[in-house]
Known about the structure:
Shape: flat
Family: Belongs to the binding-protein-dependent transport system permease family.
CATH architecture: Orthogonal Bundle
Number of helices: 14
CATH topology: MetI-like fold
Number of strands: 0
Oligomer: single chain
Transmembrane segments: 12-33, 73-97, 109-133, 139-159, 196-217, 242-261
Main location: membrane
Strand content: under 5%
Subcellular location: Cell membrane
Domain ABC transmembrane type-1: 74-263
Amino acid sequence: MSIKPKQLEMIKTVFVILFFILVSLVFIIPFYWMLVSSFKPTGEIFTDSLSLWPQNPIISSYTNLLDTHFLRWYLNTMIFAVGYVILGLFVCSLAGFAFAKYKFKFRNLIFIVIVAAQMLPIHMQLIPLFIMLTKSGIVNTYAGLIFPMIANPLGLFFVRQYMLGIPDDLMNAARVDGASEWQIYYKIILPISKPALGAMAILFSLFAWNNLLWPLIVMRTEEMFTLSVGLSTLIGQYRPQYGMLMAGSTLAVLPIVLLFLKMQSYFISGLTAGSIKG
């Protein structure tokens, strides 16, 4: 008995749907376990039996967070993320605009060198960066946390590739109308580049929100820690507080999830368009 083309297509669709459901579960189950564990006593988190809901729900893990610097860690992380996104997008969009739309000597060579810097592991840059911050006197400050990170080679590459697809005729028409180069960048290039900038905003936010190594190096006092560094201090050698860690991690995930849901259209269209420009 032969299978009709429509039936074959339906079978393929069912298998594709089942595959993506399984992939979704792989990502969702850890988050669900983290959420449920935040309402469990510490002794119940690592029991042999897997429960879909806590047998003795508690909220003390959340209330106990108030006895730490959790709210300050949250504020520090928001300042880091917002400052890094705004300044990073400004620098990357301005540099991407220059590399995409202006011709100058050694343009391609300079661009290749900058992008090649992305291949250097951050560990090679930690000591030089820390020495520079120490000599500048901005260790344990927001400026020291944000400024060394804003020149992102990946962001520059992505924005440049997107801007290469913007017709030069738009810029020439604006120049004929008397627009300055800054007005062309601010009033024409940036609005057209919203999808790419939206995608970069999400990626930059994820980097800043989840970054552990760099804040650990720069911030020296507990009240200046970010969420990732602060939450790591809850796992002590003798008394690990897993319930508070799960509660803090649950609250830490919420802003990123909400940001992605808000800007997912920009993220998808930006990545798609950026991948075919150039």
